[in-house]
Amino acid sequence: MHRPLIGTLAALLYPALVLAQTAAWSNYAGNAQHTAVSPIASQSLQGIRWQTAVDLNPQYTGNDLLAHYGSPVITANNTVVVPVKTGATDGFRLEGRAGTDGALLWTQTTDYALPVHGWTPSYSPTIAPGNTLYYAGAGGTIYTRGNLDAAGSVTPTQLSFLGAGGDAGDLGTYLANKTNFDANVRISTPITSDGSGNIYFGFQVQN
Question: How far out from the chain centre does Cα 59 lie?
Fold first, then answer.
């Protein structure tokens, strides 16, 4: 069973620079419609090429693990971006790994906190056209970074849909009341991108 959203479901439309490069698996369940159907046939399922943990502190209820995990997303150059839960009840990071052997290329932390929930909800980023990663942050904000296929760290850009006059990306409104937004506004769905580079997500207002 899933708790109903407490608050408002909304979409953030943030125009991104659309380039020719398109991710191989860009969204939760593959695409904006979440069909989970790949146009590329899988390799043999009889062996494991590489593996990595997606939960560093799993919390069991008896023998049951009541959690949903985010879908890895994959760039056109075969970098697999894996969402990783790091804490017992909160804490997430993203890992960029080479698709050929799982070698770690980079890690990206986030200050995101989960909304009120029963089962742990999934933390799912998206790769928009132009090879740009968007992932959830604190207070309903979104982080974005590029250079997904290169090793090493990158300083992300933080965006907010709370911009003055509806100016998406403007952090002024968020920063003016950061403590209150961080405590009460939580992104509550996977982030989805469309073919034009707009991104969409739901959020929850807790109080």
Answer: 21
Contact 163, 172 (CB under 8 A): yes
pTM of the predicted model as reported, rounded to 2 decimal places:
0.84
**C-alpha span between 112 and 137 (Å, rounded):** 4
- Edge to edge, what strands does the sheet with 126-128 contain? 126-128, 132-136, 142-145, 157-159
Nearest CA among 136, 138, 141, 139 for reference residue 181: 139
Q: Which amino acid is at 109?
A: T
pLDDT digit string, tens, across residues 74-88: 999 999 999 999 999
Residue pair 82/72 in contact by the 8 Å Cβ criterion: yes
For 43, other C-beta atoms within 10 Å of its C-beta total 8
Per residue in 132-152, pLDDT tens?
Answer: 999 999 999 999 999 999 999
172/176 Cα distance (integer angstroms): 6
